[in-house]
Write a structure and sequence with these properties.
The complex is a heterodimer of chains A (560) and B (204).
Chain A: H1 6-27, H2 33-41, E1 45-47, E2 52-56, E3 62-64, H3 65-78, E4 82-85, E5 91-93, H4 101-110, E6 127-128, H5 143-153, E7 168-171, E8 185-191, E9 197-203, E10 215-222, H6 226-240, H7 251-258, H8 260-271, H9 283-291, H10 306-314, H11 316-325, E11 326-328, E12 334-339, E13 350-352, H12 353-366, E14 370-373, E15 379-385, H13 389-398, E16 413-414, H14 429-438, H15 442-448, E17 453-456, E18 470-477, E19 480-487, E20 499-500, E21 505-506, H16 510-524, H17 531-538, H18 541-559
Parallel strand pairs in A: 6-7, 7-8, 16-17, 17-18
Antiparallel strand pairs in A: 1-2, 2-5, 3-14, 4-5, 4-13, 8-9, 9-10, 11-12, 12-15, 14-15, 18-19, 19-20, 19-21
Helix pairs in contact in A: 1-2, 1-4, 3-12, 5-9, 6-8, 7-8, 10-11, 14-16, 16-18
Chain B: E1 4-6, E2 9-11, E3 16-17, E4 27-28, H1 34-40, E5 43-44, H2 47-52, E6 60-63, H3 64-79, E7 83-87, H4 93-99, E8 109-114, H5 121-131, E9 138-143, H6 150-155, E10 160-162, H7 169-175, H8 193-203
Classes of the chains: A alpha+beta (560), B alpha/beta (204).
Chain lengths: 560, 204
């Protein structure tokens, strides 16, 4: 993975010094809350319901075991011994003390980490496929491009005070695993018939209050132009994005207002200013970035392993885990493993310091000391030998990291919600836990099959509810918490936004509603259909009838 | 009292900053940039306010709207080097350039206002003035000019900073160099770090 040199180290240390000074001025009353807020946000620090929340950057989701151990150590010493992985592949600490935050950033800097631009109205952490570099369907490894863009976006002098936050996702695979159509900018890397890497630039997607899928504004941008072209995109947005209403300030509103074609025209006009200029990336520079992501020095292995086959045949629990948590790898004899952070009864994405250390050990032993964070809030060990899978499984299982539910209903995406987040309208973790309790039978879960259930505690949509096969959104109605349910959303190549099935529900009704949706699916499905496919074939109506028909009947009885 | 920093030092402020009185009945700018203005809802000054705006003697920095509508009256003073123009964050550098026949360097000074420090449009305006229009004279940041943006001001092309009254000038000067080697280029033409690394490898 990418390692710091003196330039990176100096920048991060200078950032810590700058932040420490800002914090001290704030504590001394020289820097008002209003003026400190944007500064601390750009260092990942929110002031939350109970305490500050610190969001630590995990650039494009790549972590080393050394870094994860440091996170464990920080969570133990400065927090309550656990952290939370987010849908932007970052880590959040929920209970640090404001006074400690500069020290925490200094500690992070010792392992080449920071919290730069993890919040605030600036270019955020760039996300990508957690299986980058190992996926069999990969066309272009996105990580060197992500690193080039990380450096381009870090402290970009022109774009530190944008109308609103700005999120970029990069995908280099056939199957989009980075939700690129629901980002401010989505980038698809692909090759033309001569093998040259080109970029499809998608602008103006997003979730939030106004979910919109992005529009392609450049279908074949040669990669060296990425920084200058994105400068042009950002410049048009910075100047003309709305600043009078935070809910209408994302780039998607501007693109929708003037139209994608007009937006593209303005970007092209602006691009003339810098095109082929000093910021154009050279082959040698990209090679330097590429070298940071060369394949680990892994020995060649046979495509099959007898002990693995034997364990698979004998041990049903292991076979189950393999079927859900192990993915194909581009090299024979290797696999990628997803460690589930969704055991039932725990907030999705939460991980204790002990578990972090256990994962770091597993990464050292079985996956070259590296791991990745997924936007579904799980962890990935990307390069595991087939022959090691059984041992790895046992090690992971001992620490509650081998729940075989990846891609199943209980592998939910869930934001911290009203328990922690001051933006939330409603709690989301208790809803996730209630659903996990309702669907605690593993056989039933397997029968239901692939299903993505995403929960957000408010319209900001950190829990990606719009693109969940089932989406749950917490809403505030007259001061109490209600939940709106949508179905038919999806990420990937057939990204779609879910349709709301009807009026919202009280918290205790939600598990029952999900149960009815699932029963409707189970009764109506064809043998090949996933939940999503059935919804797409039948539409919302039968699901709605089942959920509200019975509710309506119950109401009649109650009032009759 | 607001301090002025020019380049890296405190400097004498010879320029009177002329502002339009607060308008009681803002009108929306119509035509031309209509889409943008409707979107951002920025008010434009009414004709009578612009006409009534007093432009005192000596070196003055006047609003773009006053310049655009009264430039004939001010032509002699431009020639005498007494007129500078400032843009608010929603205003168009293109309009200023057009009014000067594309030669912004006829002005000794251009100001860019930051009505609130979280309004980052002025950074792009500065970049455009320096690059697209090749403006080389003094470019002054006005308004909510705070220590924590100094590094960004300098990189996007400002070389003078009229600090907000509560700012300590020596701390602001120090903040111009908060970071030694930024990753990316800007109007300063700094070599992107990736290219420096190639250079170092070549030497090593």
């Amino acid at each position: 993975m990418y390692r710091y040199d003196d330039y990176d180290r100096a920048l991060v240390m200078e950032r810590v010094a700058q932040y420490r000074d800002q914090l001290q001025r704030n504590l001394a009353g020289e820097l008002s809350e209003d003026e400190f807020r944007p500064l601390r946000l750009q260092n990942g620090l929110y002031i939350q319901r109970h305490a500050p929340m610190l969001r630590i950057a995990v650039p494009y989701g790549m972590l080393s075991s050394v870094q994860l151990r440091k996170l464990a150590d920080i969570a133990r010493r400065y927090d309550r011994g656990y952290g939370h992985f987010t849908t932007r592949q970052n880590m959040q600490l929920n209970w640090p003390k404001l006074e400690d935050t500069a020290d925490i950033l200094a500690e992070l800097a010792t392992v080449e980490m920071h919290a730069i631009q993890t919040s605030g109205n600036c270019i955020r952490n760039i996300t990508t496929d957690p299986f980058a570099g190992v996926a069999p369907d990969e066309i272009v490894d996105p990580r060197p491009y992500c690193e080039v863009l990380r450096q381009w976006s870090t402290f970009h002098p022109e774009f530190a005070f944008l109308p609103r936050k700005f999120k970029i996702a990069v995908s280099g695979t056939l199957e989009d695993r980075a939700v690129t159509y629901a980002h401010d900018v989505g980038l698809h890397l692909y090759r033309d018939d001569k093998g040259e890497v080109l970029v499809r630039v998608i602008v103006g997607g997003g979730m939030g209050r106004t979910p919109i899928l992005g529009s392609v504004i450049h279908d074949a941008l040669p990669w060296p132009h990425l920084p200058t072209y994105l400068d042009a995109v950002l410049r048009v947005y910075n100047r003309y994005g709305r600043r009078d209403n935070a809910y209408k300030a994302r780039i998607k509103i501007l693109v929708k207002a003037i139209g994608a074609e007009e937006f593209a025209r303005q970007v092209n006009e602006e691009w003339k200013l810098e095109r082929d200029g000093i910021a154009t990336v050279t082959e040698a520079e990209l090679d330097l970035a590429r070298a940071a992501f060369s394949d680990p020095d892994a020995p060649a292995r046979p495509a099959r392993d007898a002990s693995f086959d034997a364990h698979l045949a004998e041990d049903r629990a292991f076979a189950r885990w393999v079927s859900r948590c192990v993915r194909a790898h581009k090299r024979p004899g290797y696999r990628s493993v997803t460690l589930s952070l969704k055991p039932h009864g725990v907030a999705p994405g939460d991980i204790t310091s002990e578990q972090m250390e256990a994962v770091a050990d597993l990464a050292d032993r079985y996956s070259f000391g590296e791991l990745r964070v997924t936007h579904e809030q799980n962890l990935v060990l990307a390069d595991v030998a087939l022959a090691d899978l059984y041992d790895l499984w046992q090690g992971a299982r001992a620490h509650g990291l081998a729940t075989p539910n990846i891609g199943l209903l209980t592998d939910m995406i869930c934001c911290p919600g009203g328990d922690f987040c001051s933006l939330a309208n409603a709690k989301s973790i208790p809803i996730a836990q209630a659903i996990q309790a309702e669907f605690d039978d593993l056989d039933y879960l397997y029968d239901i099959g692939d299903l993505e259930l995403n929960i957000s505690g408010c319209m900001n949509s950190c829990g990606h509810h719009h693109v969940g096969h089932i989406g749950i959104l917490g809403v505030d109605k007259a001061g109490s918490e209600w939940y709106q349910v949508s179905i038919g959303g999806a990420q990937g190549n057939t990204t779609s936004l879910g349709d709301v099935i009807g009026p919202s529900f009280a918290a205790d009704e939600v598990p029952g509603v999900i149960k009815k949706l699932i029963e409707t699916y189970v009764e109506a499905r064809t043998p090949e259909e996933r939940f999503l496919d059935t919804v797409r074939r039948l539409g919302v109506a039968p699901f709605k009838a089942r959920v509200y028909g019975e509710t309506a009947k119950k109401a009649e009885v109650a009032h009759g | 009292m607001a301090d002025l920093i020019r380049d890296n030092a405190l400097a004498e402020n010879e320029w009177t900053w002329v502002k339009l009185p607060e308008s009681t009945e803002p009108v929306r700018k119509a035509a031309g940039k209509v889409v943008m203005f409707k979107l951002t809802g920025e008010p434009a000054a009414p004709e009578d306010v612009v006409a009534a705006c007093e432009v005192p003697a000596g070196k003055v920095m006047i609003p773009l709207t006053v310049w655009l509508r009264r430039r004939e009256e001010l032509a002699a003073r431009v020639a005498a080097g007494e007129i500078a123009v400032w843009l608010d964050s929603h205003e168009e550098p293109a309009e200023l350039a057009e009014s000067l026949g594309g030669d912004l360097n006829r002005l000794p000074l251009i100001g860019v206002n930051f009505p609130k420090f979280i309004d980052g449009r002025g950074f792009s305006i500065a970049f455009i003035l320096r690059t697209r229009y090749g403006y080389r004279n003094e470019l002054r940041a006005l308004g909510d000019v705070l220590r924590d943006q100094m590094f960004f001001f300098r990189r996007t092309g400002f070389d003078a900073y009229l600090l907000r009254a509560d700012q300590k000038p020596e701390r602001c000067i120090a903040a111009l160099n908060d970071f030694t080697t930024p990753y990316q280029t800007s109007t300063d033409g700094i070599t992107p770090v990736f290219r420096r690394r190639i250079g170092q490898k070549a030497i090593a």
